[in-house]
Amino acid sequence: MLTISQLAAYAGVTVRAVRHYHQIGLLPEPARDRSGYRSYDAAAVVRLIRIHTLADAGVPLARVQELLDAGPEEFADGVQDIDKELRAGIRRLQNTRKRLARLAAGEHLALPQSVVDYLGRLRALGVGEQYIEMERDAWIMVAAQVPHLIDAVIAEKHEQLDDPDMVRLYSLLRGPLDWPADDPRIVEIADILERLMLRAVAAGEVGGDGFDDQLVDLLDSTMLESSPGAELVLAILAERGWKGWTRIERVPADRLATELPPD
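Given the sequence above, the corresponding structure tokens read:
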């Protein structure tokens, strides 16, 4: 008969591990003898070795009891199930490592690769980091709310960058965006946006962006909070019969007078 220390040594585990196996019901705890000690027999040694072998192989302790009591076929099926679970866990960990590696680049946080590539193209055009950060935050919201639309929207954005007017628009967004009210870029940006919208209206490309009104409001507020100049651009466009930033729309003539702010 063995003491708990001798039992642990036979199986290559610690006394603490043996007591834990007692506590969770994997290893029966013998009664104390007349001297107040617990003694273990050969069956306890074999069972403890089997417990340790399964646990060391990666079998979760919650599944060890099931395998200890299983017949040959059930044991084989149980091991196969555990192997599938482990392989799935490995894939999850590998995906997590890939995501962590991508996050090291910064912009991959909550953004698909298509958006990261688009932001890279804006940088290549010389667009300033203040605007890039603002647009990145907007894309994070878009990717979270309408992930099924993101690739189509980005593809359209790439097409727009083939337009000289759009290239000129982005070239104006270099450096800080805290422009004074008399900065000539404000009027030029309003002119470019109006030309782009007039062409879009003529081509029947206006409307149906797939964004709900709340998302549009959030995107607009992101721009307005990031750049005082954006509000001045919107004021100019409003005077010309346009409204909105993310979703620029023509205001009907009968509504224009009521929507314009008083002088």
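The chain is about 65% helix and 0% strand. Try to locate this feature in the token string yourself.
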